[in-house]
Design goal:
Layout (H helix, E strand, L loop, with lengths): L1 E5 L4 H12 L4 E4 L1 H7 L9 H19 L3 E3 L5 H4 L6 E5 L3 H7 L10 H14 L4 E4 L2 H10 L7 E3 L21 E5 L8 H12 L8 E5 L9 H11 L6 E5 L6 H7 L2 E4 L8 H8 L4 E4 L4 H5 L4 E3 L4 H13 L1 H15 L4 H44 L1
Parallel strand pairs: 1-2, 1-3, 3-4, 4-5, 5-6, 7-8, 7-10, 8-9, 10-11, 11-12
Helix pairs in contact: 8-13, 11-14
């Protein structure tokens, strides 16, 4: 078994790296995912197309030369599964791009012709995997419903959280109280609901010092995500009330989580929802949407609200900010909930999938060898009878 580890700083890159740290298996490191992410939304006529094609072909060729079962750590590597001659496992984190591809809604951005071609290859490749690891039950259900994959081929393994890093810390980055939002400005992240709820709270004098801190980049070149955000901020007259940090390395996040009065994650779709888990591990109360995978992650430790209910989020945030008993109970429950997720546990359960697949591949090989022996034994008799 060989685990492919992708370089980069995204959540799916972190997933592969954390598994690599806790699994005792050979590793194959690559920057191929980072490279094709950088070419997303380019035209077929772009000069980058030819070099990207050859990079993909060379990568698939290298994988085939490994000569062992491969674990592809994210679903956008599914395109290479179509070219593999060896069995492979693939982790599916979500079907966000699939929904955009099929026009089920705009979760990020409708893909152009080139991206549509490669996304179709991704989902075709996923179907060829000998086993699929889904990061949540919600993602497993999506795989069954939309890609029609038999449930027997899917295993749910939750990602972990690094408790050595994500824990309550005493340092504070801001003196003023703040609400925290961690994520891109893609439509699926539903930042607009947070901004509107925050705007309503700011009308109350007791929240005069309150700020909204938004962590992470806007979200890529596919659309002017930041422009849309700033248009709404200007309309709500919040340009002095919202702080943008842009990208932060993982090591800096615990200070932001620990100092926040509450993390708000109103997503319309999450394959897992790592910020909610990281926040709970840092002792930060969490308010999430009540759909997709988020209820799985937070359990009974958070307040869950319909993602379209601005009034509901306003009330929930106000309650956490003003009710110390509620807030303290949420902190306690969140810390306990976060303990249920670890990379050690994720690695153990992933290894169990590896063992299961290796046994299956071995049995298949033994069965094929037995069939060849039987065929070889019967061949002389058939030749004599014909004579």
């Amino acid at each position: 078994m060989i685990l492919v580890v992708t370089t980069g700083v995204g959540s799916m890159d972190i997933y592969s790296r954390k598994l690599a740290e806790h699994l005792i298996v050979p590793l194959f490191q690559t920057d191929i995912y980072q490279k094709f992410a950088e070419t997303r939304n380019i035209s077929w006529l772009s000069p980058k197309v030819v070099s990207a094609f050859w990079a993909n072909w060379r990568f698939a060729k290298k994988l085939n030369k490994l000569g062992d079962i491969i674990h592809l750590p994210n679903h956008h590597l599914g395109r290479y599964g179509n070219l593999l001659k060896i069995p492979f496992i693939i982790t599916v984190h979500d079907l966000i791009r699939y929904f955009d591809l099929r026009g089920y809604g705009t979760f990020i951005h409708p893909p152009n012709l080139r991206d549509s071609y490669y996304l179709n290859l991704d989902y075709k490749g996923i179907k060829k995997a000998i086993r699929i690891i889904a990061v949540s039950q919600a993602t497993k259900n999506d795989l069954i419903q939309y890609l029609h994959i038999p449930k027997e081929r899917i295993r749910v393994v939750y990602p972990g959280v690094d408790h050595n890093l994500f824990r309550p810390v005493p340092e504070r980055i801001y003196k003023r109280p703040y609400i925290l939002f961690v994520g891109s400005e893609h439509p699926r992240k539903n930042l607009g609901v947070v901004l509107k709820a925050f705007s309503r709270l700011k009308r109350e004098p007791r929240f005069d010092d309150l700020r909204l801190v938004k962590v992470s980049l806007a979200g890529g070149r596919e659309a002017e995500f930041r422009k849309s955000t700033m248009t709404l901020i200007d309309a709500l007259d919040l340009h002095r009330e919202v702080v943008f940090t842009e990208f932060l390395p993982e090591a800096d996040l615990p200070v932001y989580y620990s100092g926040a009065r509450v993390l708000v994650l109103p997503s319309l779709y999450e394959g897992f929802g790592l910020p909610a888990l990281e926040a709970m591990a840092c002792g930060c109360p969490v308010i999430t949407s009540a759909i997709a995978s988020l209820p799985e992650v937070v359990g009974e430790a958070s307040i869950k609200v319909d993602p379209y209910d601005i009034d509901g989020f306003t009330r929930a945030i106000r309650q956490v900010l003003t009710d110390d008993e509620l807030r303290n109970n949420m902190v306690k429950r969140g810390l306990e909930r976060a303990k249920e997720f670890s990379w050690e546990k994720a690695a153990r359960e992933t290894q169990a999938v590896y063992d299961e697949v290796e046994k299956e591949v071995r049995q298949r090989g033994e069965q094929r060898a037995s069939e060849r022996r039987d065929k070889a034994r019967t061949a002389p008799k058939e030749a004599q009878e014909k004579a």
